[in-house]
Amino acid sequence: MLLLFIDRSFTVPSFDVQVKLGRGNMEIELEQGWEIIERGITRLKNILEGLPEPKFSSTNYMELYTTVYNMCTQKPHDYSQQLYDRYRESIEDYINSMVLPSLREKHDEFMPRELVKRWENHKVLVRWLSHIFHYLDPEFIPRRSLLPLREVGFICFRNLLYCSDDTDLDSPLFRLIKSEREGEEIDRALLKNVVDIFVEIGMGQMDYYENDFEDAMLKDTAAYYSRKASNWILEDSCPDYMLKAEECLKREKERVSHYLHSSSEPKLLEKVQNELLSVYGNQLLEKEHSGCHALLRDDKVNDLSRMFRLFSKIPRGLEPVSSIFKQHVTGEGTALVKQAEDAASNKKSVGLQVFVRKVIELHDKYLAYVSDCFQNHTLFHKALKEAFEIFCNKGVSGSSSAELLATFCDNILKKGGSEKLSDEAIEETLEKVVKVLAYISDKDLFAEFYRKKLARRLLFDKSANDDHVTDLTLARENQTSFEEYLGNNANANPGIDLTVTVLTTGFWPSYKSFDLNLPVEMVKCVEVFREFYQTKTKHRKITWIYSLGTCNLIGKFEPKTMELIVTTYQASALLLFNTADRLSYSEIMAQLNLTDDDVVRLLHSLSCAKYKILIKDPNTKTISPTDSFEFNTKFTDKMRRIKIPLPPVDEKKKVIEDVDKDRRYAIDASIVRIMKSRKTLCHQPLVMECVAQLGRMFKPDIKAIKKRIEDLISRDYLERDKDNPNLFRYLA
Amino acid sequence: MERIDNVFYSYANKSSGLIDPEGIEALCSDLEVDHTDVRILMLAWKMKSEKQGYFTLEEWRRGLKALRADNVHKLKKALPELEKEVKRPTNFVDFYSYAFQYCLTGNEKEKQKSIDIESICQLLDLALGFQFRSQVDYFIDYLKIQSDYKVINLDQWMGFYRFCNEINFPGLSNYDPELAWPLILDNFVEWLREKQT
């Protein structure tokens, strides 16, 4: 009602109108003039207090501000300063006599209510008085660099809030906020109005809001949540606690939008996060049955996602979470390794294939966690990587993981492998293998095993796609020419069907060749081919790898004639029995000119395995150099044609040896490369750079690097500095 | 000078014109010093002798002149002084390095670069035994039981001297295998530490 009395669009009239007072153009005395003004002010104050007063007309106003005008412009006594001071005093007086007492007598919620009312009134008072004293604003005030009228007015009210020790504003406000937090409905408008006082009174600066209200509010909030958290952490499970925390944060955010200043939002949320999450973070994560470990174990993806959301808000909050994640994945992986070890010790060879599959599945599973629950955060990618690096580099029962992966790929790709997959599935699986390969430090070992197995697949596996292997295409063409050659030269024909695969050395793994004494029949074959090959090219040398050859023999056994598919080595041994009934181990070895290892292996396959083509005397399960052998005329099988496998030599040791040798060269080359460009370098940086350079293929052993450095010193590539033994110099 | 030469020829082999091992033995007995004594090695160092077991006239002249001795009696008297001179830190490194190279066999074309373990053990005892008795004893034990190295090269030889000088023994507290110590010393320290637990 009072507010409507003064129209906002009230304009100050121009000062051309001069109202003459009583004595004509005479000066106005200070007290005289002030009396008039004060009367007007008092009337305004009464109106504000709601006391009965006649309306304040525009004439009343004109009288007052004209008085002010005159008192400021008259000469010689310009009372601007006094008027300025008395303006302020009027307001102070009003506050001290009316406002302060009324606040003091109110308690609890009524105090802030009164304050809001009084503030509104105050704003009106200041506006009215500013109009009356308006003439001071444009000239006097700026000339003396004084505070403008409005500001003076607000400061008076500010001082009230400051100096009123009796009026406790905080408690009633915080009690209201607490009630709302506890779920009760409160008068939000009241809070908003009080908060607005703090904002408005700053007149553009937020100091008052922050110092007089916000600080205490934040402290109060912190204390509140601290109490709550200390209870919840004991009573609630981790997921439940997190739900509550998330809810609290949501509510506090809403609170800001309802009645706090927006600048409080980050500070408020930070306080809440601190009390709920930072303080109790570790306890929460490590809760025995419901903490992070348990959630991972039980695949509680929703809870984990919530955990990520909450902990990503607090400083370094994600570090413990990612650490637990890493521990968990490492644990799962290590359990797989143990499982595989157990299966291997129980002679279940399929355990290794299954192991690799399970590792791939584990990777898929936790990669999904990283992208879904943990929003692809780098900390979690890193944790996953480190976890896999730990257990992927543990071998299983003597086989390195590099070898296991290579064997796994071989099984998928070869015909007759343990897995039958569509091309698409093969491709998909191989892509996943590549991902796991990234964690293995011995990548060069994997490459070497893979290469060996690939060569085997290309040479022996009918299903292998070898169209793009030029060497094999050439070999096929070669064979065709050979057959043509035989067709054209009847006398060259050895009488046995012969197929030769010619490989280019260097494209293929090195295979050892031994000087096997071939049976007479085969000798002719070899010679014929050699002659043919000479017609094609004079510059190439052929080395025969009999260990890779196969042979189809016709065995005339008593029960029935059978076809035997054997290796060349086995065939050579069997054919000896065409001219002798009984042969000793040493005779066979002498005749064949092979090593003990090979002889033992091949005789075992013919006499102690599934198909006993030869009878061994004594009839033990292993071959010894004192054994004798006879042709088993009584041998038979329900099939007409059987393949007698010769288990290949375990190439593992050789592969590892080869890789070690390659590594020595690689380390040498790397050291030389580094030293050549740096000229001088200290030991530790040299080692570090070397490790970094080679890291793509393998993790060099520090001792191995040291050894290579010493070797290079003795070969005069490097020297140790005379004064600093830690420094090396490149010798050009 | 003439007197020095005369003494030379009294020990030298008539046909080769050098003092050979036999001559050196005779010299040692006259000096009343065992021919495996380190002082003979020191004498060789002073002479800058190149081939173990042999002294040339030039080397002889060089050594005796430096020691201001023109007969055996004076030479014998000069030995304690020579010992002191060698043991001075600035000279000792040089002597120690010399000791190794002196023992390398082979000629100009096929100069050996390393010395076999057994000879090294003897040489260590001779050259360093008096100064670092326990380190030398332990290291010799280690060299005999390890199988990584069949020979020792100059870098490793010098490394051991540095080891004796810089590393707390037997505490080994300041040994850091991440530094550029020769690998054989890393292994030696590992072996020692295992023994200590």
Automatic annotation (TrEMBL), chain A:
Family, as annotated: Belongs to the cullin family.
Organism (species): Linum tenue
UniProt cross-references to Pfam families, sorted A to Z: Cullin, Cullin_AB, Cullin_Nedd8
Protein name (record): Cullin family profile domain-containing protein
One Gene Ontology biological process: ubiquitin-dependent protein catabolic process
InterPro entries membership: Cullin, Cullin-like_AB, Cullin_homology, Cullin_homology_sf, Cullin_N, Cullin_neddylation_domain, Cullin_repeat-like_dom_sf, WH-like_DNA-bd_sf
Any GO molecular function: ubiquitin protein ligase binding
Domain annotation Cullin family profile: ranges: 400-607
UniProt-listed PROSITE patterns: CULLIN_2 (PS50069)
Domain of life according to the entry: Eukaryota
Automatic annotation (TrEMBL), chain B:
Start and end residues of each DCUN1 domain: 1-193
TM annotation in the entry: none
Pfam families recorded: Cullin_binding
GO cellular component: ubiquitin ligase complex
Domain of life: Eukaryota
A GO MF label: cullin family protein binding
InterPro entries xref list: DCN-prot (IPR014764), DCN1-like_PONY (IPR042460), EF-hand-dom_pair (IPR011992), PONY_dom (IPR005176)
Signal sequence region: none
Any single GO BP term: protein neddylation
PANTHER family, per the entry: DEFECTIVE IN CULLIN NEDDYLATION PROTEIN (PTHR12281:SF12), RP42 RELATED (PTHR12281)
Function summary: Neddylation of cullins play an essential role in the regulation of SCF-type complexes activity.
Protein name as it appears in the record: Defective in cullin neddylation protein
Species: Linum tenue
Biological classification of the source: Eukaryota, Viridiplantae, Streptophyta, Embryophyta, Tracheophyta
